[in-house]
């Protein structure tokens, strides 16, 4: 079993869900960007969702260094936005998984940077397809799926686990 592939697959699950959420309801992501002074129409938020979902699907379907590099590029963009939101004195919901009641903080940034490191690892090492990384062993299948789903759960909790708090004038979260 390839642990990097299992961790990457966990991140791809989250990336696909985040992309689908933005496609259906881009307003949270658009509002998050607006709080950073970047005003874009809802169509741009939807397009970001399409890109996230498409990159996740491509990386699942055709694993390898190229698709992993696409994951790194998308994840780096997410990390930059998350960092900017975390540094903002305003308590701004991130809009990444459709939760308006959570803000970006250090845990959120650390989770996305962790996903970025896994993506870079996948580019450096390469990632086999799912069947190749499991070698047909039932134990490997269970371990891979458990790591992927566990990673997706931990990442999701890291992204949505902080309740939003309104910033008061003159205070920083």
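Sequence proposed for the structure above (173 residues):
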């Amino acid at each position: 079993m390839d642990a990097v592939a299992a961790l990457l697959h966990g991140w791809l699950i989250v990336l696909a869900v985040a992309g689908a959420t933005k496609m259906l309801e881009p307003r949270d992501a658009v509002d998050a960007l607006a709080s950073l002074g970047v005003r874009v129409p809802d169509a741009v938020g939807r397009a970001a969702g399409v890109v996230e979902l498409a990159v996740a699907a491509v990386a699942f379907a055709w694993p390898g260094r190229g698709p992993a590099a696409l994951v790194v590029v998308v994840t780096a963009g997410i990390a930059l936005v998350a960092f900017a939101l975390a540094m903002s004195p305003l308590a701004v919901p991130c809009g990444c998984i459709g939760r308006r009641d959570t803000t970006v903080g250090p845990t959120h940034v650390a989770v996305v940077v962790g996903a970025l490191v896994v993506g870079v690892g996948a580019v450096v090492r390469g990632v086999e397809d799912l069947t190749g990384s499991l070698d047909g062993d039932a134990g490997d299948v269970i371990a891979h799926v458990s790591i992927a789903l566990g990673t997706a759960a931990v990442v999701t909790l890291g992204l949505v686990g902080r309740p939003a708090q309104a910033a008061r004038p003159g205070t920083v979260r």
